[in-house]
Design brief:
Blueprint (H helix, E strand, L loop, with lengths): L7 H11 L2 H10 L4 E2 H8 L3 H13 L3 E6 L2 E6 L4 H11 L6 H36 L5 H11 L7 E5 L5 H6 L5 E6 L2 H13 L5 E5 L12 E7 L8 H10 L1 E12 L6 H6 L8 H10 L3 E8 L9 E7 L8 H4 L3
Parallel strand pairs: 4-5, 4-7, 5-6, 7-8
Antiparallel strand pairs: 1-3, 2-3, 8-10, 9-10
Helix pairs in contact: 1-5, 3-4, 3-6, 6-9, 10-12
Length: 331
C-alpha cells in the first residue's frame, strides 16, 4: 500500500511528537501490544500524569489511537494515515538489540504474563459452565472447519469479529488476513481475547470494547464480518445484522453462526440466552432485509451425545467491487 503524503506542517508536527526519548519508547511498545497508561507506567517507570501527557501528544499527532473500555483506556499504534505510516517507519529504524529497546520489551513481557495469568484465572472460574454448553452442540472443530470452508473461496484482507469472546475467530484466520479486529461488550472477555492474541503473537489482530448495535467504524471497512454464537444473547438480532452489513465493503461477506432451534430452557435461565436458537428462514430474512444476498445456509447436526445443531448463514454485499485505490485500502 502506498504511504499517505503529509503536508510540511503535518510532517513537522509528527516528527516533533515522535522525536522525544520517552515518546519513541512508547511508540516501540505500542507496536508490540495494546497497552494502558498503567501498563506503560509499570514498564517505563515514569509517573502516570507524565505518560498521559506524552500519550496525548502522540494521539493529537495521529501517531497513536486511544480506545476506552469502561474505566480503562487502551492505546495502540495508529493504523491509518500518514502519521501512522511515519510511526512505523521510525520504529522500523530502531535496532532490535538496543539496550533500551530490550529492557522495555522484557518489562512488557512481564506485563503480558500478568495479564495472561489474570485471564486464565477468569477462564478457570467459568470453564465448567462453558464446557457444559460445549458438550450440548456440535464439536468446535467441526464448526470451525465449516466456517473456514464457507470463507475459503476469496482472500480476506480486513476481518471484523463481532462479539469476539476469547478471540478465537481472529486466531483461526490470522495466517491469511492483513488485519483483524474483534469487538466485545464484556471487559472480562476482552481480557481473555487479549491474552490469546498475546500468546500467539498476533500483532496484526486487536480487540476493543464495542457495541454491536452501534459500531464506531466507518462504512465499507471490512471484507468479512463474522457473528459467531452471539445472536442468541441479543434482544434485536436484525438490528445487529443490519449494522454489520453497513461496514461491509462492496462484495464483502457476512458469516453468521448460531444455534438451530432447541428447547434447553436452562440456557436462558442460567446463561442469559435470550433466544433458544434460530430457524433458518428467520436469519435469512434479516440478512436480506439488510440488503445482502444469501449465498449459503447449512446446519450441522449435533454429535451422538449432543442436543443442539449449529447453523451457518453466508451472505454477500451485492455491490460491484471497483478496482480503485480507495476500494483496495484496508480499513
Amino acid at each position: 500500500m502506498d504511504h499517505q503524503q503529509l503536508s510540511f506542517a503535518g510532517l513537522t508536527g509528527s516528527l516533533k511528537a515522535a522525536g522525544e526519548a520517552t515518546r519513541l519508547r512508547i511508540l516501540a511498545l505500542l507496536a508490540e501490544a495494546e497497552l494502558t497508561v498503567s501498563d506503560l507506567t509499570e514498564i517505563l517507570r515514569q509517573s502516570q500524569p507524565r505518560l498521559s501527557r506524552h500519550l496525548r501528544l502522540l494521539a493529537e499527532a495521529g501517531l497513536v489511537e486511544r480506545f476506552r473500555e469502561g474505566s480503562w483506556a487502551f492505546f495502540r499504534l495508529g493504523e491509518r494515515g500518514g502519521p501512522a505510516d511515519l510511526a512505523r517507519v521510525v520504529i522500523g529504524r530502531l535496532k532490535a538489540d538496543d539496550s533500551i529497546v530490550v529492557r522495555d520489551r522484557e518489562r512488557l513481557a512481564t506485563v503480558r504474563a500478568a495479564r495472561a495469568a489474570a485471564a486464565q484465572n477468569y477462564f478457570r472460574r467459568h470453564a465448567a459452565q462453558w464446557d457444559r454448553i460445549r458438550r450440548l452442540h456440535v464439536a468446535d472443530a467441526a464448526v470451525e472447519d465449516a466456517i473456514r470452508a464457507a470463507l475459503a473461496d476469496k482472500p480476506i484482507r480486513a476481518l471484523l469479529d463481532l462479539g469476539t469472546g476469547t478471540g478465537r475467530m481472529l486466531e483461526l484466520f490470522s495466517p491469511e488476513i492483513e488485519r483483524g479486529l474483534g469487538l466485545d461488550l464484556s471487559l472480562d472477555m476482552l481480557a481473555l481475547a487479549r491474552a490469546r492474541l498475546d500468546r500467539a503473537a498476533l500483532k496484526h489482530c486487536s480487540v476493543r470494547h464495542g457495541d454491536i448495535y452501534d459500531l464506531a467504524l466507518p462504512r465499507d471497512s471490512f471484507d468479512v464480518v463474522i457473528i459467531h454464537q452471539v445472536l442468541h444473547f441479543l434482544d434485536d438480532s436484525a438490528r445487529a445484522i443490519a449494522e454489520a452489513a453497513r461496514v461491509l465493503r462492496p462484495g464483502g461477506r457476512l458469516l453468521v453462526v448460531d444455534f438451530a432451534p432447541h428447547d434447553l430452557e436452562f440456557l436462558r435461565e442460567e446463561h442469559a440466552h435470550r433466544r433458544l436458537g434460530f430457524a433458518a428462514e428467520a436469519v435469512t430474512q434479516w440478512l436480506e432485509a439488510a440488503g445482502l444476498d444469501v449465498l449459503r445456509q447449512q446446519t450441522l447436526p449435533p454429535g451422538p451425545d449432543g442436543k443442539i445443531a449449529v447453523s451457518l448463514w453466508l451472505a454477500r454485499d451485492p455491490r460491484i467491487v471497483l478496482a480503485t485505490p480507495a476500494s483496495r485500502e484496508v480499513a
